[in-house]
Write a structure and sequence with these properties.
It contains 14 helices and nine strands. The chain has helices at residues 2-7, 12-25, 43-54, 69-79, 95-98, 115-122, 136-139, 143-146, 184-187, 200-210, 216-234, 245-257, 261-268, 276-287, and strands at 59-62, 84-88, 100-105, 108-113, 125-129, 151-152, 160-161, 167-172, 191-194.
């Protein structure tokens, strides 16, 4: 992973500080230190996020769909060699689902620890996914954990100080059903990083790294198609539904099984648009880049 940072020309002094942190605090044998399936590509964002985390700050990753927020969070946990807990927020998220609650076990009342409690006491990275999906009153229980106090104050229990290695990485999308604005009190507790759309160059690196045997001409065709859809979305010609990087990767994975590339792209990209007019625009864009019938294998043997 350090070599991966060097290839992206991340500042060498920053890499050195990260290596020192890993040597002093890394938990390489912890089962919750999980190697990410995909690498995040973006020099500036990596430098900003690593700097903030080394400084002991929490970060909030904002931006449009398919900008790699969750991929970055996974990469950061692994780069820092710290255990991670993922919390997916929703309208019913409450205190007990975050911190924990009393439960009856073996004929006695015991405290069932929640993911925030676990991450806070074990020095983990808590990934707060879609933090703007939860109600503000639910998020307020985190305020003392996120600011300078760095504590969890449980009614009926002792006050808990956070491990010095604990970090919070929150993510949020705009415009989804059920999302809301993050209030000022919460936003002030984070360093905020706006995630840019993936560039053509970084998408090329991602696909080349993920699918090493994918022929270059087809990799370029898939990239051109995705960037074209991204451009149409930015210009409000289509919604973001078909600008789905997970969908593109899933489509290529089904091609490895043997599905026709054009059909796989329809499943992973075009069929994400449920409006028929928009879907036709997406299909027309796909047809300019991907032939409906490809006789040869798109992968090298």
């Amino acid at each position: 992973m350090i070599e991966y940072l060097q290839k992206q020309n991340v500042d060498n002094k920053l890499i050195e500080k990260l290596e020192i942190y890993r040597k002093e605090n890394g938990l390489f044998d912890d089962p919750r230190v999980i190697k990410p399936e995909f690498k995040y590509y973006g020099k500036e964002v990596l430098e900003e996020s690593i700097s903030a985390l080394l400084a002991g700050k929490n970060i909030l990753l904002t931006g449009a769909k398919a900008t790699g927020k969750n991929v970055l969070a996974e990469n950061l946990s692994y780069l820092f060699a710290r255990p991670s807990w993922n919390v997916s927020f929703h309208v019913n998220t409450d205190f007990s689902s975050l911190i924990g609650a009393d439960t009856f076990k073996d004929n006695q009342v015991t405290f069932r620890k929640g993911p925030i409690y676990e991450a806070s006491t074990r020095g983990g990275f808590a990934v707060l996914d879609e933090i703007n999906m939860a109600k503000n009153e639910a998020i307020s229980v985190l305020h003392a954990s996120l600011d300078h106090r760095r504590i969890i104050d449980l009614p009926g229990y002792e006050k808990i100080k956070l491990d010095p290695n604990t970090r919070f990485i929150a993510t949020m999308n705009y415009g989804y059903v059920g999302t809301r604005e993050v209030n000022e009190a919460l936003a002030s507790r984070f360093m905020i990083i706006h995630m840019p759309n993936i560039t053509k160059e970084n998408l090329d690196k991602l696909l080349a790294d993920t699918f090493t045997n994918l022929k270059e001409e087809y990799r370029k065709a898939f990239i051109d198609m995705f960037i074209s859809l991204q451009f149409k979305s930015e210009n409000n010609e289509i919604s973001t539904k078909s600008v789905d990087l997970r969908g593109l990767i899933s489509a290529i994975e089904t091609m490895q099984i043997g599905l026709n590339p054009y059909d796989a792209i329809l499943m992973g990209i075009a069929n994400k648009s449920f409006d028929e007019f928009e879907r036709e625009i997406v299909i027309d864009t796909i047809k300019t880049k991907i032939p409906s019938q490809i006789k040869e294998s798109i992968f090298n043997d």
